[in-house]
Write a structure and sequence with these properties.
Blueprint (H helix, E strand, L loop, with lengths): L1 H6 L2 H19 L5 H25 L1 H7 L27 H22 L1 H19 L7 H20 L5 H26 L1 H6 L5 H25 L11 H26 L2 H12 L1 H19 L2
Length: 303
């Protein structure tokens, strides 16, 4: 089972589920019914499990090239399994991986349909874009934008769970917040960590194309935009959250995103890229915890 969990990067996937969970609570300004919560969690887990595994399946050939010389790199604490890239390491067959992906994807489609048929289209689009992202590895560094779009899909779907007709302007705030978080906190730091391996296969990434100075600047700017946009997130909620909530949102962004990003920009050390990736991975979870505290406190106080 560990091989399958490594294929789906389950630890990372579970952390990522916090982003759509946060988006749904913020948008609704309350907790959904228990049935919706349970179905949504199951559907999100199935979706992230299948799409993350799809990434490894589509990119298997590239991964084998990348790690042929020196083996699998250490990775990050949220993806530290020795069985990372099980297909590239040939510890899991393509047939088994395909069956695993297919089962979870079908379950995700069923759950999506039950929640809101529109989410089926969002899930299919996210899977197609994930395939495109993998195929662009040797084509263009602009693929990082595709990654940003894919990572917003979970939260877009979550909003459609609690609101069948969301206002586009409000939804755009959520999209921008996650889009720039993904680029600055996840995608570029991951490419930075894989620089040696990516150079071996002539991959097109921002760190390789522009160097660490520019890559560090892009990371810092992207995360600065994400934190600034996060300041507008309370405005999309029907619940009046107040200044303490806003200050908490901004503080979490400074501590988990901007501080490690600035260190990476200043020192340009590979280990700091991995640390930023880890820190940014916990950022959506921190936001989910923060909104949960406020909503729970409101219920207890009857406000």
């Amino acid at each position: 089972m560990n091989r399958y969990l490594a294929l789906s990067r389950t630890t990372h996937g579970v952390l990522d589920i916090a982003a759509p969970a946060f988006s749904a609570l913020l948008w609704l300004g309350d907790f959904p019914s228990l049935g919706i919560i349970l179905l949504s969690l199951f559907t999100a887990f199935a979706a992230y499990t299948s799409v993350y595994a799809l990434n490894d399946l589509v990119g298997m050939g590239y991964d084998r090239e990348k790690f042929a010389g020196s083996g699998i790199n250490p990775g990050y604490s949220v993806e530290a399994s020795a069985q990372r890239y099980p297909l590239a390491q040939s510890v899991l067959s393509v047939r088994s991986a395909s069956l695993w992906i297919g089962i979870w994807f079908v379950l995700a489609l069923i759950g999506s349909y039950l929640l809101n048929p529109v989410i089926v289209l969002i899930l299919i689009a996210a899977a197609a874009l994930e395939v495109l992202y993998c195929k662009l590895l040797k084509v263009t560094y602009w693929r990082t934008l595709v990654s940003g779009v894919v990572k917003t899909s979970g939260s877009i779907a979550a909003v459609f769970v609690v609101d069948p007709n969301p206002a586009f302007g409000r939804l755009l705030i959520v999209i921008a917040w996650l889009f720039f978080w993904e680029i600055g906190g996840q995608n570029i730091p991951a490419d930075w960590n894989d620089t040696v391996e990516d150079r071996r296969v002539h991959a097109k990434t921002i760190p390789l194309r522009f160097g660490f100075q520019t890559a560090g600047l892009v990371v810092l700017l992207a995360l600065t935009v994400s934190v600034i946009v996060s300041g507008f997130l309370p405005s999309i909620s029907p619940r009046l959250l107040g200044w303490p909530y806003l200050l908490g949102i901004l503080l979490l962004g400074v501590l988990l995103l901007l501080r490690p990003a600035f260190r990476l920009f200043r020192l340009k050390e590979g280990r700091l890229a991995a640390r930023l990736f880890d820190s940014a991975s916990y950022y959506p979870l921190s936001q989910f915890a923060w909104i949960t505290i406020f909503l729970a406190a409101g219920k207890l106080l009857g406000t």
